[in-house]
Amino acid sequence: MGKVYLVGAGPGDPELLTLKAHRLLQEAPVVLHDRLVDGRILDLIPGKKVYVGKEEGESEKQEAIHRLLLHYARRYPFVVRLKSGDPMVFGRGGEEALFLLRHGIPVEVVPGVSSVLGTGLPLTHRGLAHGFAAVSGVLEGGGHPDLRPFAQAPTLAVLMGVKRRVWIAQELLRLGRDPEEPTLFVERATTPKERRIPARLGEVAQGKVGVEAPALWILGEVVRVLEEAPRETEVLLRR
Description:
Blueprint: E1 3-8, H1 19-27, E2 30-33, H2 39-42, E3 48-51, H3 61-73, E4 78-83, H4 93-102, E5 107-110, E6 132-136, E7 155-159, H5 165-174, E8 182-187, E9 195-200, H6 201-205, E10 215-219, H7 231-237
Parallel strand pairs: 1-4, 1-5, 2-3, 2-4, 6-7
Antiparallel strand pairs: 7-10, 8-9, 8-10
């Protein structure tokens, strides 16, 4: 039986890979990778690459991924399961680890930089936000999440919420958030195609804000933190 490494690819920039992740990608005989893993990271892999990406709503494909992991783990000394961001943050890494362990396959998690951390914004900031929450904008099977436990978080990070952004914004307003609250969408963070779209929560609720997936959505006063910084400072912060 081979060992399976659940490896986080980070938000996109190859330089944000951990040293261990980079070494494993160089040495792995086979890498099963997600749809959102950046192409520059895939170019670092000399071994066999197996695409196992899913589109939203393809929940049944997860069982096929489990079977593929088991198949390769029984044929190679080790296998890398490469996920964008961190494998244990909305990456279904826990499900895959449990499946493999139940079949006698050893598993090791190699954390990655979550996309939640890839915007350059402070998720916490003294005097503004003493904590933050992260929520998925879609549930298993395409359902809508219950936002009540997250509605009053000082900073709220929404992943996989682009398609439902109008409904999410309307629901957050219903639950008491301010329509004037600043928010920021960051498309393809840390990549050459990164785009940043500021908007008020009320504008999003009215369907006035155009965004393309994949994008992370940050809501809260922390969005204002760098608004008054000199333009030169903003450029330095974003490289």
